[in-house]
Amino acid sequence: LKENQLDLAVEQVNLLLARPKPSKESYNLGGLVAVRQQKTDLARQRFQNALDLDPGYTRAVINFARIELFYNFDQEAIIRGLNRLQPLFSRQDEWGLESLRLLTEWAVLHPSYIRSTEGNLSEQLRHHPLAKIGDQCLASEWELKRLTDPKKKEAVIEKLIASAAQLSASDQRELAAWINRQGLYQKTLKIFPLVPNAPDALLLVQL
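Above: the chain sequence. Below: its structure as tokens.
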């Protein structure tokens, strides 16, 4: 899948699932392949098969929730997806972070569904112990989505960029790219001036 060889992935998954007792990992992989094939009903079934074998299989929980949130317009499926993620939010591991990322990405697209937790969501993501600069940007994007006061929006941006100078070159590039996606090109140049010794990747973002 990572090498975009979908036909080969389908063939390998079919072999795995043809075994007498497929593993939860095989069902989960089969679900991911089905998603790539745009066969969402099949993906749901395979993720459910994985969870039938192990209800605590977090990887399948996350993937199932993603299907229900992003590939469905059914209200009940959306609620099920949200309920799947809820127990993971407080976890301090990679799956806790992934669940917060997933919900925040979805909330940005569907802000009306998340009003009851809007304040807490961005802070949970921002302060997760494994959060990276991309997560900081995503948390800020959610805050910008729900705010209408220009001054409050500006405060969100300023909070995000306050420590820009201390970021690594790759994190600076990611932050600059995010700021550009918000249409704040002049702010990118203000934070990261065009100087001859700037990293090439950052210069490309600025240009």
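The first helix runs from residue 6 to 17.
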